[in-house]
Design a protein that fits this description.
37% of the residues lie in helices and 20% in strands. The chain is of the alpha/beta class. Helix 1 packs parallel to helix 3.
Length: 241
């Protein structure tokens, strides 16, 4: 089972910073997960949100800020927003990397950078909520491994109601996941852990696919996921895995 540092080791350090990724590696993470957006001058920045508002001392949309300006912002503890190039350099030959792609625009530049890097494709997993984007990326880089982020919102009342409804129709959701993985030649599904059952894990493994869960920080839930046979767990505290 892969121990995956979610946005690095963001339970300890500012998320998606080189400091956070370094911490995750030090804590024994097999893989780190990072999110990417494109800057105004078409550089790939490692940041989760479409804006810098939550994770830095700045304001505004990433796509409207050039890299030089972005680098002047404090992303926590004096850290800057890293570029994908910096992250690739940091983790190369040290751990695997899951890059979550947010938009088609950034995907174009990601493909270009990955084609130019000597980072092993065996150590890379490109993920997205958008299946068509994964298909497009694999068409350009056939050897790349892909993961579908099966989205289950959970941050407000409407989103929680969605999750509650999803739990009532789990068999249908599980069928849909397996169907999409097989139909679109996707290697892995990254899924919100309450939607997982051992039966689903077994069915996915029977199709020679993988299933990984996010974001699990509680010891009891980590144990539950391990017993289900999960292939990887995303956690803010990779040392707990």
């Amino acid at each position: 089972m892969l121990k995956i540092g979610h946005r690095g080791a963001c339970g300890y350090e500012p998320e998606n910073t080189l400091r956070s990724f370094e911490k995750a590696i030090a804590l024994g993470a097999d893989m780190v997960e990072a999110d990417i957006w494109l800057t105004k001058d078409n550089k790939i920045a490692v940041i989760h949100d479409a804006t810098v508002n939550r994770t830095t001392n700045g304001r505004g949309y990433v796509e409207k800020i050039d890299l030089a300006t972005l680098k002047k912002l404090d992303a926590g503890k004096g850290e800057t927003v890293p570029t994908l190039t910096e992250l690739l350099s940091l983790v190369k030959n040290r751990c695997q990397l899951n890059i979550e792609v947010k938009t088609k625009k950034v995907a174009d530049y990601l493909i270009k950078e990955l084609k130019e890097t000597d980072f092993s494709s065996n150590d890379l997993l490109v993920s997205s909520t958008f299946i068509k984007m994964l298909i497009f990326i694999r068409q350009q880089i056939p050897q790349i491994k892909t993961a579908w982020v099966f989205k289950s919102w959970r941050n407000n009342i409407i989103q929680r109601l969605w999750t509650m409804t999803a739990l009532l129709i789990l068999p249908l959701i599980h069928w849909h996941i397996i169907y999409q993985l097989k139909k679109n030649n996707i290697d892995t599904v990254n899924i919100y852990y309450p939607l997982v059952s051992k039966k689903l894990v077994d069915k996915i493994h029977q199709c020679n696919k993988m299933i990984m869960v996010w974001t699990v920080n509680d010891a009891a839930k980590i144990k539950q996921m391990k017993e289900a046979g999960i292939d990887g767990i995303f956690s803010n505290y990779p040392d707990k895995l």
